[in-house]
């Protein structure tokens, strides 16, 4: 039997997705922890494929090195064919490629004394008197035990917590190159509802131009179940051909993901020294699926708390934001509101900067009240009255993998 070796760290971060990389970045950025170890799966089936993360931000945020594209104009297309174009200043919409983010964070870890990247599979996490212990398998199968004062675990949960409403945001995207210039690189199409709508939920196209002849084009649904790859491909083909009129194109790369949209209560602690982060810790915004911006905010808060010598970390989203999302999710799931019209009208009636802050959970009660008055009031009030009395039920987590916005 191969002997098990043991190593110590101040902080262990498990998982090399958006949440794990972001926390490692913020910890080393601020010089918070004396010893930070980021544990990522080795190359193989447990390591996710390259993917993109998008968010809106204002000013500098420490991610400039990893941002590969930005858009200063946002657009929505309604199901009726009308469009809404908005300037979200001071925000811009930003794309981060996972490979660029990894290079940035891995480079910082290599340059920071006491910080390191460890390639291995975390197999078990348990509390010990002085913190937590993580049992890992290194490439080749060699066992390793890691001890740390605090462990931050971003690995997906085996099952989703009980919820009153559970939808999925699931999508497939093509990185396309067209024979002629077809895109305006300054305008991002966040939601294009000019696609056939499913019997339950909603569907939309999503276009992020990277050059006049290149773009990421996605087909997305908010619904209860994922589709087959063939169905996504067919929907993308129709969207590119019949709606966007792209003509001849080459698909250079694809990406696919599933994001939970649920009002479940995600436990943020798995022991006195083990903390959940990312989607597993409730960072995904239930009503939109956006995760990356909340992960950045939460990572900065965790780093600041550790720097101040405590572990009282705020939740990624406040109680008020989660309550509003629970109402919207239920209204969408029951069909009481028309999803395409709901989102299109919000962008038509609410200033873009305020709406983006609302979607990010940073608006005031007064601002949220004003936004609420611009939604279908009766069905929303009816839903708000019933949500507190609905039972929470369990359902296994979707295991197809995620790609948080």
From TrEMBL:
Name of a matching Pfam family: Lycopene_cycl
SUPFAM superfamilies referenced in this protein's UniProt entry, alphabetically: FAD/NAD(P)-binding domain (SSF51905)
InterPro entries given in the database record: FAD/NAD-bd_sf (IPR036188)
Gene3D superfamilies recorded: FAD/NAD(P)-binding domain (3.50.50.60)
Name of the protein this chain belongs to: Lycopene cyclase family protein
Organism lineage: Bacteria, Bacillati, Actinomycetota, Actinomycetes, Kitasatosporales
